Amino acid sequence: MTNGRSRFCTDEEVPGRILSVLRDARKYAILVTPYLGLWPHAEDAIVVAVKNRVDVKVILRADPQVLNSEDVQWLLLNKVKVATVEGLHAKIYLNEAAVVVSSMNLTRASTQASLDFALTLHDDADTEAVREYVTRTVVALAQPVTAGKVVMNEVRKMFNHAGKSDRGHCVRCGTDIDLDPSRPLCPDCYDVWAAYKNPEYAEKVCHSCGRSATTSYAKPLCSTCYRSLR
Ligand SMILES: [Zn+2]
Ligand SMILES: [Zn+2]
Hints:
The chain is of the alpha+beta class and 230 residues long. The chain has two domains: 7-145, Endonuclease Chain A (Endonuclease, Chain A), CATH 3.30.870.10; 147-227, no CATH class. Helix content is 37%, strand content 24%. It has nine helices and 14 strands. The protein has an eight-stranded mixed sheet with strand order 1-9-7-6-2-4-5-10, sandwiched between helices. A hairpin with a 6-residue loop joins strand 11 (167-169) and strand 12 (176-178). Helix 1 packs parallel to helix 2 (40-51). The chain is elongated. 37% of the residues are buried. The structure holds zinc ion (2 copies). One zinc ion binds at residues 170, 172-173, 175, 185-186, 188-189.
């Protein structure tokens, strides 16, 4: 990436400028976008960044519609960290070398119809204030989103449709508990888990179907149950 001059672009050039933040990232990328509606090029850029061990974080507006979208589930499945902030309106995309401030949300609709701009700033005094705003305010206020929280509403819906009971299973010992993917452990197992609170720690049972599967506190469903939600 070249150092120095900031560059301004508009309309059809904007999506590419935003995706270049992902493509050029070597260490991390933070995408601050109130709304989300991924399109194939955006998904590709995210997948490639994650494969290249870039720490990708997406910060969204705390809004149930945004949170329950398929895109959020897709991000979590693809090892992207997702967090939300109340009242978020800023759109800022940055990596360790450059900052893009833009009017564009990371949504497919914006790539087609909206009049948008993006201003790329390469690292110097100008970017410092933006970086500070993102790390000290936006990231500091952000609440992490786990797969369990997002999936919970969908699981409830699915089971209500199927006329099944709201019974689930402890992901560690398999005992019957309420179906609630945000609380996938029985009280006893929870106490043990709580000593370490590692959301990725491998468990043995699917919270929904009770079959043996590699699950975790963060991702309590087997792949079959998870897929059936999509
Ligand atoms: Zn248990
Ligand atoms: Zn299952």
